[in-house]
Amino acid sequence: MAVDLEPSPEVAALAGRTAKFIRDVVIPIEEEHRGVVTSDEVRARLQNAAKEAGVFAPHVSPEFGGHGLGMLGRAAVFEEAGYSLLGPLALNIAAPDEGNMHMLEAIATEDQQERYLRPLASGEVRSCFAMTEPAPGAGSDPGALATTATRVEGGWRIDGRKWFITGADGAGFTICMARTSGEPGEAGGATMFLVDAGNPGMKLVRHLDTLDESLFGGHIELLFDNCVVPEDAVLGEVDQGFRYAQVRLGPARMTHCMRWLGIARRAQDIAVARAADRRLFGSRLGELGMVQQMIADNEIDIAASRGLILQACFELDQQRSASQSTAIAKTFCAEAIWRVVDRSVQICGALGISGDVLLSRFLREVRPFRIYDGPSETHRWAIARRVLRRHDKEAGR
């Protein structure tokens, strides 16, 4: 069966408008703030401009004010948005909000969608997803989940410590993963809870000092201490949290890849412009063989990343598991995008490590992607296990 991975005319037009919006509106603001924005005023200005340009919330269904794109459609638009560090924030497709919107639309009740999804989709509030815990709690192994939720009169009491919770500072609500049955190390027994900002049992402990800085709301350590929520705060079904997390994780890994692929393209464009203009040793920098190899290798990594993203998105749109294809794409893209940005810095030399271009900021932002959403080593382990299981099945074992 032939598979056409070209975007539809409607998606191509939206991607084109997004590209123009990013270059004309967002990049000047990004350069002014050196890629890091902490002001809600600036966030609102960017998002209002995206609404005026007709490119806001491409992933959300029209019922909640978006364009309703599937995963393949998102690939084209998100890549264009990711051409700037602030593009995803402007379009309201930044992590963790984008993944939370996807999950709320898929599993929340109608009342929960009105209370949480609608204001999130409009940019009125932000959100966070609280699963990761300090060691020995949940991290690369979600089954190590140690935060507990215990039934109390009228609802649940959540107790535990979370860290690396992106966007938690200033979030309107948190989706918290807590153990409602079983013990740490067991595969089941997790439940998701919607926790409103201002709940006295949820406390911001500190901002983590991290290599990256561009994700709005920072990376936060949270303490849940006698955090009582009502019964209707349960998102989905009790004890099914790990299953529901898969609704979010596969697509979210791909949208991360899409956004960072935009930054890889931006880095390549900066490097190519430098190679075309800089003269040394009697010729243009771009006419030197070693520089040409780096430019070519960047193009190969960008094209291969896009191909793997589209393959995984096609499977997701077909309602297939896509576990293997998303793991492969995430692992390759996280490393390839780093290579592209690193080579671009090298091509630009002293300029690349200076503050006159944003390449050094891009380098700091993309490095953690090899750890976020599962480190490359964990994904390789999972990929290999699936291959071995397939071999055993085919061998009749």
Would you identify the regions where 5 or more consecutive residues have pLDDT less than 50?
A: none
Strand content: 5-15%
Give the beta-strand count.
Answer: 10
Order of helices and strands: HHHHHHEEEEEEEEHEEHHHHH
Keywords: FAD, Flavoprotein, Oxidoreductase
Cofactor: FAD
GO cellular component, one term: cytoplasm
Subunit structure: Homodimer.
Tell me what the structure shows.
- By secondary structure, the protein is α+β, with helices and mostly antiparallel strands.
- The chain has three domains: 9-94, Butyryl-Coa Dehydrogenase, subunit A, domain 1; 127-235, Butyryl-CoA Dehydrogenase, subunit A, domain 2, CATH 2.40.110.10; 242-394, Up-down Bundle (Butyryl-CoA Dehydrogenase, subunit A, domain 3).
- It has twelve helices and ten strands.
- It has helices at residues 9-32, 40-53, 71-81, 87-91, 97-107, 110-122, 241-277, 289-317, 323-348, 350-353, 359-366, 376-394; strands spanning 127-130, 148-152, 155-166, 173-179, 190-196, 202-207, 219-230, 234-235, 279-280, 283-284.
- Strands 1-4-5-8 form a four-stranded mixed beta sheet, covered by helices on one side.
- A hairpin with a 2-residue loop joins strand 2 (148-152) and strand 3 (155-166).
- Helix 5 (97-107) runs antiparallel to helix 6.
- 47% of the residues are buried.
